Amino acid sequence: MKKISLMGCPNVGKSVVFSRLTGVSVISSNYPGTTVDFTKGTTAIGGKKFELIDVPGTYSLEPTSKAEEVAQTMLQEGDIVIDVIDATHLERNLYLTLEILGRKKPTIVALNLWDETKHVGIDIDVDKLEKLLDVPIVPTCAITGEGIKELTSKLRDARQSKAIEPMSEEERWLKVGEIVSEVQVVHHRHHTIWERIADTTVKPVTGIPIAILVILLTFLFIIGIGNLIIEYLMDPIFYNYYGPWIVGVVNSFSPDGLLHDILIGKSTIESLEFTQSLGLLTTGLYVPFSMVLPFVITFYFMLSLLEDVGYLPRLAVLVDTGLHKLGLHGSAIVPTILGFGCNVPGTLATRVLETEKQRFMAATLMAITVPCMAQSAMIFGILGRYGVKWIFIVYSTLFVLYIIIGLFLKKIVRGESPELLLEVPPYRKPDPSTLLKKTWTKAYGFLAEAVPFVILGVFIVNLLYVSGVISVLSTVFSPVLTTLLGLPEGAIVALIMGFLRKDIAIGMLLPLGMSPQQLTIACIILTTYFPCIASFIVLLRELGIRDMLKAAGLMITVSLTVGIIMRLILIGI
Amino acid sequence: MMGNQLRDVNPDGKVVPLTTLFPGEKAKIVALGHGIRGQRHFRTMGLMEGKTVEIIATQPARGPVVINVEGTQIAIGWGIARHILIQKI
């Protein structure tokens, strides 16, 4: 099977072209560097099957970041290159094009965002450009699908350019200038009122209050709508329909005994118990579907909205000064926000940062202080009943930790902390169907991973209790848990589960009858002490074993220290 | 490098770093310093000698500068921006 590499600068709509060609839905966003890991798919064109590789966006083939290194390798491996150009930024996109053409791979160019050139007053002479570059050029608008058919039908015409030879950087820039002046006419236009309004979101005086408002509204939306879904949809389903039914079914073949308890715990039709029964079919399903899923849906809806509108780069600009003090820069806010959804994509997204120091810092800070949505949902669910105050204590403690650990790592980790250099894309109107599709993809991804793991977790917990392992471990760890942290020794089961999944781990705290103070301490410790298995694997892959060990040492130290401090503050000696 | 574009530079105008400008001011890029990530990176983002930039916003405490180059907005860290030399228009 021949390989097609899809290449281009960041944020030119490459991933949309990819999904148009393969039918595979790829996450695209309105900020540069969404695709840091490459995606593969297959597509049939003219009866032949091709493997299509969505290469991370880069401005040039000389690698300055990890994404660019990947791009370099992928180009070598491909048989045909589809070079996607942002027609509204011809000049800067052509540099990469000339570099690609210089490598003498058969190439075809997709002149994407073609429809937008008219809006911004740019005329491009496609025929002339085709002659100058000596490869086929197809104007496309991947979002609507325009031009994609022509792109596939012309794929067989992809050829090595005879006009463009390998050249030096300087010659290439001169050539770019030459080509642009021959094929492009830009009509001067004034700032529209909308652009002026858009600018207020990056000016500090107006931008910072707007940012605070946006974050606050986002948070209120996630919690508010999430709770509504639980109250009016999920809980009624579980308590009125699913619960009585499953208890009846299980009772019919196993009215009591071990199997009964493992499947549905102590639940009876009269008193349904979903959170504490520890049954595979009660707690095992209630936690992911009713306690977590609603918040996962609202979180990803808001995240996708902010992404697609193009707000995140502005937020990056506004927080840059603060993050700079921690040795990071504004771009680190994007992986961090992704981490609030799930640490796995969050950790992968740290690749947009340029240096090893920054990547290590961002990934470690996330692993320690950023709770994923599954975990947050459980924290809301468990602490919320005692008042917002306790939730606030958990998150402000984590925030303070972020700053302290950041300052510490900045001092201790060797390496460079380069500065922000980030394109701020124009605001775009989000497409509702894309928005819903993205939200659905993420929610489905959550369920596919969470449900089996949570059920497995609940099963392991049952085994640990039945076999008596828990009582042994409780005694062993009792000095740390009870004496140092002020928690009941039974909390060990939550710590063990935390290695597997954080949501079920926090769920394990419920049957222990803890005070809100103890729950608050336990939630902070569960967030900080170690990542869940999925995040751990990704972290290990991204950091390597040595840095992972360093990070792990930091996690345990931080967790124990902050646990003891919080115990002293909240409970006393 | 890009010597041909330097001809546009007004020989009497004062050459100053980008960081000295205020929002709303416009300037022509005279030289790209050896910023941390090098000139190539600037150019691939559309920052080139001879181009006109408009300052959209500056952030307090040596925060990044947001500029507009031919319709593209770019946020540039203060430490990089001070290596970009310009002439006010």
Q: Please, could you describe this protein's structure?
A:
The complex is a heterodimer of chains A (573) and B (89). Chain A is of the alpha/beta class. Chain A folds into two domains: 185 residues, P-loop containing nucleotide triphosphate hydrolases (Rossmann fold), CATH 3.40.50; 366 residues, no CATH class. Chain A has 23 helices and nine strands. In chain A, the strands form two sheets. A six-stranded mixed β-sheet of chain A has the order 2-3-1-4-5-7, sandwiched between helices. Chain A has a two-stranded antiparallel sheet with strand order 6-8. In chain A, β4, α3 and β5 form a beta-alpha-beta unit. In chain A, α11 packs across α16, α11 runs antiparallel to α18 and α22 packs antiparallel against α23. The radius of gyration of chain A is 27 Å and the shape is elongated. The mean pLDDT of chain A is 90. Chain B has 89 residues and is α+β, with helices and mostly antiparallel strands. Chain B has one domain: Roll (SH3 type barrels). Chain B has a six-stranded antiparallel β-sheet with strand order 1-6-2-3-4-5. The N terminus of chain B is likely disordered. The chains are: A alpha/beta (573), B alpha+beta (89). Chains A and B meet through α3, α7, α12 and β9 of A and α2, β3, β5 and α3 of B.
